[in-house]
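Narrative of activities, Objective 1.

The group set out to show that a structural description can be obtained from nothing but a protein's sequence at a throughput compatible with the screening campaign. Below is one input-output pair from the validation batch, recorded exactly as produced.
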Amino acid sequence: MATQFRRTDEYDGASEILTVVHLESGCLAIQVTTGPEIGDDFAGLYDLDGEQIGYVGGFEVAEDVPADVASAIEENWATGNRTVERL
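Output recorded for this entry:
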């Protein structure tokens, strides 16, 4: 299952990339950046419900995302005028 998603604002077309990551604690989280490349600006690290989290130590990009987690991201991160799609 995809590990990256694009959230796009339908009004101005601005988008951000949501990447599923594994924290050192073993939990999954979402890294938000301005684009899919390593040099793109980091916007924050969030739990799966969209609450920003502080420093958690290291993390790495998840190799695979369970289908239920991917569906939850698509549903829960699409708010108001923002849509979410798997990349």
